[in-house]
């Protein structure tokens, strides 16, 4: 993997002179400061974190000037929800700590302008109004846990506020809770307990099932899923897993076989869910999915409630398709008191206790305290979930290429056939510039973002891109090819190659057998210019339909009529071919997503050999 070490980026003397006339906090809105304690830099500028009233020092470095901010007082950290003592002790060693729990929204907004950092759990909503009320002083929001649904990330980024979370400390606790639910469900522990406390003795009613020799399908083979698999193997279960982007070697090391989604759900006696909640996984377990499972399957969910269609699960429980369910998470939390799912006699429920152990709570407290302290020192945490401030002069030139990079990554990963897994990524840049004059780390980060985010709940940015890729076994290499052009243009093209994968669109494979897409910026707009070995030219706006066809007259009109009849607007179309009357690739940009019936009609055109729809 390419190094992420940053080189100093010197400000031109004129720019530094302009900045010196600004007030400290107005400067913080447009330039990054350098704390004398900070050793962490990214894109050559250290994170902007003025504390209280900073004093400025100028230091000449080369021909440029660097502006630094020195902290004049201890920062203030507001802890809005209960945090473990070990974390509070760490915070108090560095900052003034205000523990004010159960604040109403207006109370939080009233206090936040006096604080440099805010730590919350899941109960406090950190909205745009909170960031606006902070008036530029709030520099870090720490989420003591994994999910950040309660933090407005866009508003945080707009206000130059770093958001960090604590994603690792509760892994074992969540896995243990999953196993606890698995075992208690199989042996009807909760129901038998309630029966006895009601004065009954019903041994015959609560006969359970054994775990040894049964097949457990782990759906999502990340940190928690792999830990559940380890423990289930110890119980004598046969474990399979589905995660199209999990490294096969990591699964094999645990003794787990990676299989397709349909293979997993049809073979499993027990299904344990550990997938993130993304648009592609929302209500993934629905009527259609339950129709494919082994009759009498048992389901455990300690991930996210939204991955299950709860009404569909009730129907599956009622008709015996699903024998039992054990749930720690729900679509709405807390669920309604009259919830049919919660009250169902075949369902074991707990109130989102996955991370609720003494050890996990202390671990989360320490992890988030260290992340917040590091951020206040000017260090960039690997657990950051939004982008830090990047000066406009650095981004302005690369802005359209940043968009191009993410869309190429997003496009490439959608071409991967499920189950093959993405392991190797190669990025090729063509440029007339000297390598020292073109820092591609932000472009690499955006390609990583495009590849990972569509299939994960992880938020990828310039701070955590390389870390996230490494954690997922994604190896990214870069190559620069000199292109004889004007150096005023940063890049001629960017090419993304995914190696050792299968493609759902065979034409996207190059002669070397890897998925290959290439693009360039034209008049400020990202364009797709190469798919596999076919040259195309289509704007990467909206969505994209790729068709491989026999090159013959009338094809553009035929497809256009089908889309037009369904009120799908075409914004761009391009055709690339190997030779006249041979094969061609038609790339069609569309504003709307065609329905399944429309796509089916396109696929039924005799001359079309394959096609794929890609959301960008």
Description of the molecule:
The chain is an alpha/beta fold and 616 residues long. The protein is built from 20 helices and 24 strands. The strands form five sheets. A seven-stranded parallel sheet has the order 10-9-8-11-12-13-14, sandwiched between helices. The chain has a six-stranded mixed sheet with strand order 16-15-17-18-19-20, with helices on one face.
- What would the principal axes of the Cα set say about the shape? globular
Question: What structural class should be given to the helix and strand makeup?
Answer: alpha/beta
Helix content: 25-40%
Question: Beta fraction of the residues?
Answer: 15-25%
- N-end to C-end Cα span: 26 Å
- The number of strands is 24
Radius of gyration, in angstroms, nearest whole number: 27 Å
Major pleated sheet? 7 strands, parallel
**Strand order of the main beta sheet, please?**
10-9-8-11-12-13-14
Q: How many helices does DSSP assign?
A: 20
Q: Taking all residues together, what is the mean pLDDT?
A: 83
Low-confidence region ranges: 1-72
Q: What's the layout of helices and strands?
A:
Blueprint (H helix, E strand, L loop, with lengths): L12 H8 L3 H5 L26 E7 L2 E7 L5 E4 L5 H8 L3 E4 L5 H8 L4 E4 L7 H7 L5 E4 L9 H6 L3 E4 L5 H16 L2 H9 L17 E5 L3 H12 L3 E5 L5 H7 L2 E2 L2 H7 L2 E4 L13 H4 L6 E5 L8 H9 L3 E6 L12 H4 L3 E3 L8 H19 L15 H23 L9 E8 L9 H12 L12 H7 L3 E8 L10 E7 L15 E8 L2 E7 L2 E6 L3 E8 L4 H11 L4 E8 L5 E8 L5 H8 L4 E8 L1
Parallel strand pairs: 3-4, 3-5, 5-6, 6-7, 8-9, 8-11, 9-10, 11-12, 12-13, 13-14, 15-16
Antiparallel strand pairs: 1-2, 15-17, 17-18, 18-19, 19-20, 21-23, 21-24, 22-23
Helix pairs in contact: 3-15, 4-5, 7-9, 16-17, 17-18
């Amino acid at each position: 993997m390419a190094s992420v070490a940053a080189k100093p980026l010197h400000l031109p003397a004129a720019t530094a002179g302009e900045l010196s006339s600004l007030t400290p906090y107005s400067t913080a809105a447009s330039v990054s400061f350098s704390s004398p304690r900070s050793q962490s830099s990214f894109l050559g500028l250290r994170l902007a974190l003025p504390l209280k009233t900073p004093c400025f020092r100028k230091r000449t470095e080369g021909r440029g000037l660097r502006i630094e901010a020195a902290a004049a007082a201890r920062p203030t950290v507001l802890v809005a929800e209960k945090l473990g003592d070990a974390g509070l002790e760490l915070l108090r060693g560095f900052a003034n700590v205000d523990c004010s729990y159960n604040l109403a929204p207006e109370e939080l907004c009233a206090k936040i302008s006096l604080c440099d950092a805010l730590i919350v759990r899941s109960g406090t909503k950190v909205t745009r109004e909170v960031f606006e009320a902070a008036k530029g002083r709030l520099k870090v929001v720490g989420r003591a846990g994994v999910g950040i649904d309660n933090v407005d990330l866009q508003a945080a980024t707009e206000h130059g506020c770093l958001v960090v979370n604590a994603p690792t400390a509760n892994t074992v606790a969540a896995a243990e809770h999953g196993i606890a639910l698995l075992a208690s469900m199989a042996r009807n522990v909760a129901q038998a307990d309630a029966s006895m406390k009601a004065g009954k003795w019903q041994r015959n009613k609560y006969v359970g099932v054994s775990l040894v020799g049964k097949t457990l399908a782990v759906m999502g083979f990340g940190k928690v899923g792999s830990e559940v698999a380890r423990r289930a193997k110890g119980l004598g279960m046969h474990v399979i897993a589905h995660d199209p982007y999990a490294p096969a070697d990591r699964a094999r090391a645990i003794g787990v076989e990676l299989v397709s989604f349909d293979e997993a759900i049809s073979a499993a006696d027990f299904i344990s869910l550990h997938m993130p909640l993304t648009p592609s996984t929302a209500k993934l377990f629905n009527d259609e999915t339950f129709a494919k499972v082994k009759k009498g399957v048992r389901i455990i969910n300690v991930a996210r409630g939204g991955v299950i269609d709860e009404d569909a699960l009730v129907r599956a429980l009622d008709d015996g398709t699903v024998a039992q369910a054990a749930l720690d998470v729900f679509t709405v939390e807390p669920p309604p008191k009259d919830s049919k799912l919660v009250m169902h006699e075949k369902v074991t429920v707990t109130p989102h206790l996955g991370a609720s152990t003494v050890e996990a709570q202390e671990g989360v407290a320490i992890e988030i305290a260290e992340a917040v302290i590091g951020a206040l020192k000017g260090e960039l945490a690997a657990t950051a979930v939004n982008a830090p401030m990047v000066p406009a002069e650095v981004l302005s030139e690369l802005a359209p290429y940043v968009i191009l990079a993410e869309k190429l990554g997003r496009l490439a990963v959608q071409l991967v056939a499920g189950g093959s897994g993405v392991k190797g990524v190669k990025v090729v840049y063509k440029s007339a510039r000297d390598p020292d004059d073109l820092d591609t780390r932000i472009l690499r980060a955006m390609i990583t973002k495009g590849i990972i985010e569509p299939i994960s709940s992880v938020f990828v940015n310039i701070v955590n891109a390389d870390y996230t890729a490494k954690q997922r076994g994604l190896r990214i290499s870069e190559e620069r090819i000199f292109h004889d052009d004007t150096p005023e243009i940063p890049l001629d093209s960017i090419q993304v190659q995914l190696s050792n994968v299968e493609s759902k669109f065979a034409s996207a494979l190059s002669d070397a057998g890897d998925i290959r897409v290439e693009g360039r910026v034209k008049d400020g707009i990202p364009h797709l210019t190469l798919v596999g070995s076919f040259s195309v030219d289509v704007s990467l706006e909206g969505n994209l339909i790729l068709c491989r066809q026999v090159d013959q007259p009338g094809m553009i009109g035929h497809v256009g009529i089908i889309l037009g009849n369904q009120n799908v607007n075409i914004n761009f179309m391009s055709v690339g071919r190997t030779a006249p009357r041979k094969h061609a690739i038609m790339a069609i940009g569309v504003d709307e997503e065609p329905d399944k019936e429309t796509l089916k009609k396109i696929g039924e055109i005799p001359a079309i050999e394959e096609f794929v729809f890609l959301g960008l």
